[in-house]
Amino acid sequence: MDWPDLAGRLNGQTHELPVRVYYEDTDFTGIVYHGSYVRFFERGRSDLLRLAGINHADLRDGGRDGPALAFAVRRLNLDFLKTATIDDLLIVRTIVREHRGARIRLDQSIWRGDDLSVKADVEVAVITSAGRPTRLPSPAAGKLASLVSAGDLDQG
């Protein structure tokens, strides 16, 4: 079954992923638990890469004669601005700010309608299976470079 929008969509250089808040995402008050936002941001980053043609499974398998690669979050700063609750529809927006060597910087935000709920400043490292930083293979690096943006996620 083909669901082309399951991974969200690229709107220019901004990736947008809809996320519904389920009971499992909330704490006992019905408000989204802070750790759930980290998972939502991870989904946004993964689906951005997927739509750009960079697949985690291909990197993990190493390709032809290449090392197995993975992405590791090096730094994650979150700003919680407004709460979200059960059954809310959220939009996770992701922009690649910089890609240099083994480092990728991204800005992410989560919106509930016109309200900015959470902002994240993320730095990801490309690493080998031994945990050493490394560059992405040229084809993947080119795909990622085409997504680098100077856009602003604070605007809904």
TrEMBL record:
Gene3D superfamilies to which the protein is assigned, alphabetical: Hotdog Thioesterase
UniProt GO MF annotations: fatty acyl-CoA hydrolase activity
Hydrolase recorded as keyword: yes
Keywords noted in UniProt: Hydrolase
Statement: the UniProt record of this protein carries the keyword Ligase: no
One Pfam family cited in the UniProt record for this chain: 4HBT
Thioesterase domain mapped to chain residues: 30-117
Protein family per UniProt: Belongs to the 4-hydroxybenzoyl-CoA thioesterase family.
NCBIfam families according to UniProt: YbgC/FadM family acyl-CoA thioesterase
Protein name: Tol-pal system-associated acyl-CoA thioesterase
